[in-house]
Amino acid sequence: MFTKSKDSDSTQTQAAMADMSRSSANRAGQRSMAASIICNDMEIKGSIVSEGALHIDGTVEGDVTAGDITIGQSGKVVGEVKAEAVKVKGEVLGSIRARRVELETGARVEGDILHASLSIQPNAIFEGQVKHSDDPLKSAGPKAAKPASASASASSSKTDSKPAGGPADVRSFESHSTAAS
To answer: What distances in angstroms separate CA 153 from CA 1, 142, 144, 158, 166, one per listed residue?
Structure first.
């Protein structure tokens, strides 16, 4: 009567939809909505704003704002990600601002994270700055570094000995957790 689907992407997408729908329905004060899904064959250039849950398996070049955001294993966002809860299984090239951030095994984030709660699972890669905030959605976002050309022209007019190319206090953090649970 029931057969197993040979298309694993379809099965993963259906499971993600069910998970996101439950997550949306559980949030207090909001009506139950199904998750919006950006499939792995979609590429969006531009910003996305949603009040409900969003599951991204495709590519988004632009800022993404939603109630809950899950970036699937094949998902990629190039821009700022802002939500109550962000779960990353794929790739984010940009900042993340959320009350709860989860970087799952296989995730790759290159950018700053402003959060109230952060968890990084084993073999997730994170390169950037991390800052705790009681209300990351209302706080000002992380400031981007100045382009090298702007820094070079600004420092060429000064006579100090600091090298051109950006601020000297920028730090990078990379996590390759291997702790057993």
So the answer is: 70, 23, 18, 9, 11
What are the Cα distances from residue 126, in Å, to 37, 114, 140?
Answer: 25, 13, 21
Token digits for 167? Answer: 């601020």
CA pair distance 156, 48, nearest whole angstrom: 40
In this predicted model, which residue has the larger pLDDT, 95 or 35? 95
In a domain, 129, yes or no: yes
Structural domain tally of the chain?
Answer: 1
pLDDT digits (tens, 9 = 90+) for 159-171: 444 444 433 333 4
Q: Is residue 15 part of a domain?
A: yes
- How far the first Cα of the chain sits from its last, in Å, is 38
